[in-house]
């Protein structure tokens, strides 16, 4: 069984969805700490004039460096209206706006006390739109040694999940200690090449955006096909 491990991400980019789709099991890292430059609580979208913009969910930052992601509270719910309006204004002239936007209105109408509630809801919508049926488990539900760090922690989590293969993103190859993967579990890298698709808001293709960008531009069927190439 192949396991991938990653922090949850707000309407994640295609690389994360590709890795999840190629896994039998995806473990959500909900006991790690959030960092300011992380993509757990934010992602990049295109504005109507083709400029990149981070949409960020604000949260209670009191001592957040010392608290696990699963405990961070959302204290201002106005982000839902702001994000909905930005996405509506930025993508309303796109060819598949009418197909995708109704899928988002229920999400933005919801109330999310915790940051992980909102982020996981966005991930579940994204996985449904891309027809990704990978089983999900949470790090916090695993019996593992919390004192371990980096590679040894990953190996312990893989074994705790019952998987025998860890699927890593290629970006981790630069710092991955491959020596900890001896026998079981084994280590594999997810080979992902970002698809190029027509972006209505930009004359030059911009990669690494939220998965919603490809959905508004090429639709559900087109996006599913491109991510599986």
Give an account of the 3D structure.
Helix 2 packs antiparallel against helix 3 and helix 3 packs across helix 6. Strand 1, helix 1 and strand 2 form a beta-alpha-beta unit. This protein is globular. The chain has one domain. The chain is an alpha/beta fold and 229 residues long. The protein has six helices and seven strands; from the N terminus they run E-H-E-E-E-H-H-H-E-H-E-E-H.
Unreliable segments of 5+ consecutive residues: none
Elements, N to C (H/E): EHEEEHHHEHEEH
Count of spatially separate domains = 1
Distance between the termini: 22 Å
Identify the strand order in the major beta sheet: 5-2-1-6-7
Helix content: 25-40%
The number of distinct helices, counting runs of at least 4 residues, comes to: 6
Structural class: alpha/beta
- Overall average pLDDT: 94
């Amino acid at each position: 069984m192949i396991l991938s491990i990653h922090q949850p991400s707000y309407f994640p980019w295609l690389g994360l969805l590709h890795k999840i789709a190629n896994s039998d099991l995806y473990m959500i890292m909900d006991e790690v700490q959030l960092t300011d430059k992380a993509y757990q609580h934010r992602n990049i979208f295109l504005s109507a004039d083709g400029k990149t913009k981070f949409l960020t969910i604000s949260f209670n930052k009191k001592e957040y460096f010392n608290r696990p992601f699963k405990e961070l509270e959302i204290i201002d719910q106005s982000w839902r209206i702001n994000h909905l309006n930005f996405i509506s204004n930025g993508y309303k002239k796109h060819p598949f706006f009418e197909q995708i936007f109704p899928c988002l209105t229920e999400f933005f109408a919801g109330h999310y006390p915790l940051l992980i509630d909102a982020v996981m809801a966005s991930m579940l919508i994204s996985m449904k739109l891309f027809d990704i049926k990978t089983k999900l488990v949470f790090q916090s539900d695993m019996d593992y040694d919390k004192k371990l760090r980096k590679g040894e922690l990953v190996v312990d989590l893989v074994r705790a999940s019952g998987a025998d293969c860890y699927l890593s993103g290629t970006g981790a190859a630069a710092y991955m200690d491959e020596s900890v993967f001896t026998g079981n579990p084994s280590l594999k890298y997810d080979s992902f090449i970002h698809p190029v698709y027509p972006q209505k808001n930009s004359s030059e293709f911009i990669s690494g955006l939220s998965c919603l960008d490809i959905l508004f531009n090429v639709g559900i069927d087109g996006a599913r096909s491109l991510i599986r190439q």
